[in-house]
Amino acid sequence: MATGKFRPTLKEVSRQAGVSIATASRALADNPAVAASTRERIQQLASDLGYRANAQARALRSSRSNTIGVVVPSLINHYFAAMVTEIQRSASNAGLATIITNSNEDATTMSRSLEFLTSHGVDGIVCVPNEECANQLEDLQKQGMPVVLVDRELPAGSTIPSVTSNSQPGIDAAVKLLAHNNAVPIGYLSGPMDTSTGRERLDSFKAACANSKIGEQLVFLGGYEQSVGFDGATKLLNQGAKTLFAGDSMMTIGVIEACHKAGLVIGKDLSVIGFDTHPLFALQPRPLTVIDQNVEQLAQRAVSILTELLAGTVPSVTKTTIPTALIHRESIINSTLRKKDELSNE
Amino acid sequence: MATGKFRPTLKEVSRQAGVSIATASRALADNPAVAASTRERIQQLASDLGYRANAQARALRSSRSNTIGVVVPSLINHYFAAMVTEIQRSASNAGLATIITNSNEDATTMSRSLEFLTSHGVDGIVCVPNEECANQLEDLQKQGMPVVLVDRELPAGSTIPSVTSNSQPGIDAAVKLLAHNNAVPIGYLSGPMDTSTGRERLDSFKAACANSKIGEQLVFLGGYEQSVGFDGATKLLNQGAKTLFAGDSMMTIGVIEACHKAGLVIGKDLSVIGFDTHPLFALQPRPLTVIDQNVEQLAQRAVSILTELLAGTVPSVTKTTIPTALIHRESIINSTLRKKDELSNE
């Protein structure tokens, strides 16, 4: 077994119990060939050591499943669909198959998925965590299941390796551009405060506004759904926003929807900054300027760390961050043209 | 166990072997407490009866996993992401969890996924089949695994229940509209000929052209990818197509990309018929007229048939088809305006 120090092997259980591997195996299978008192003692020891039934099944099969589980919060969100697809490609290159579960942003669904994956033979898990499942994920790691978090991380204190975006470089560049073009006030559509991505991006936005000395801007506390983006965009436009800045893919679609329904032409009547690289964002009449998360690299690093864990290596870093970047297209209004327009309207 | 007549139970194996359930169980676990010759005999019998290791594990656990497996060919294709999401919602309503595998249109990947799902405790499978996996799927069904095909079906002769779209109503209405508007020649981007959807939609298109008496039209034999749609659209435009008609979601994005790059405004410079209901198709400057497959109903019916199979009921119909419909928006050029344009150009 390659999972080394984390997951106690059958051999380790048998060694500590002072019996042969065969006896330990039989005892854990509750085989009456082993005396009842010995069986009980070995089962108790295995439980204390965090030895898992699935690890047992695996040892009995003398092989790994060579399959990893991936847990994401949505699949209609193109960013996560692209992430899963790239995780699967990377895993396949490492000789691993992939099975996927979709939590639909629901902690109970995620909890059940983790339970199923763990008890049905995956060798490791890549998870976009719901914070309500923090304890379960920590327990899984303690019990020796290799786990890597991707996209989101758990609040401080978690020792589970994570691969997340650093939104600061992309958001800094975007706000600097908007400030330069005087495309203010900016209306920022924030992700939810119970996700690390929601908090981290809002912090980046506020820091970028301070850096660019444009003062406090409009913020809508939203969620990762198109309908929420639509509502937020509508509200921010009513508050006088000249730029809509979406904090994720789904809210970007909501922003496009709100502009479409209000008859506003993006890049002409208002500026828009989108998030992530959906193919149709680049095919808008004025292609969207976006913050790009480098989803391929996020996925590849997560798989790379998981394969290290599967090989029994302790990763050298717990937190890996991948910088975002601004992809400048045509959805930001040129300030010079803007001023001319304003003059001609006066 | 609810899977009734299809899957031989441990009890059935023990009955036919003339031994107790406990002995049959031990023999199948290769427990040396059972004489080697008896073990061999029972193992052979179980194999002949199609008794599966996972069924055994399940019987030993005395419970079902209440989890279904879903196998789709892509997740970055929004149509399949929406299908999986709706399958999961419907399954959840029926008290079932869902795990997902993505075959990436690859038969080997699908085959491994089916193997993993079957041997790791799912109660049933909803599958968008690759035709190269036909035998494996038929075998699974014979061995008692409840299987339902969705979106695509297997060539004639398969007895696995399927839920597919009937493209004829939607395509008929589209071609009728195009003929009425004289938006010809039509360039049709067909799906691949090794999928039932590719063949069925092309047949529907040809029948619709015959019905509308517009004669043979341009056809590009493509595949379910954006890049293929882009290449096909470019080729068909060069051949003089006045309308591009995409045979799926991904090729629709490729068509939008080709028009974008050629500087052609959809609904003004050419007509476009898309396929499926991606939210951004309706948010194009001239919203796309599309063929809608009713993905929710496809998903719901597939789950409903699977739950019947799980309850041991034999479904009354093997083939279920859901009609497509034309959603008429603004991407078809009005023939009256067109004629005026043509006159002014002369």
TrEMBL record, chains A, B:
Domain annotation HTH lacI-type: ranges: 8-62
Gene Ontology molecular function: any one: transcription cis-regulatory region binding
Superkingdom in the source lineage: Bacteria
SMART domains (UniProt xref): HTH_LACI
Record keyword Nucleotidyltransferase present: no
Coiled-coil ranges (or none): none
Keywords assigned by UniProt, alphabetized: DNA-binding, Transcription, Transcription regulation
Protein name, per record: Transcriptional regulator
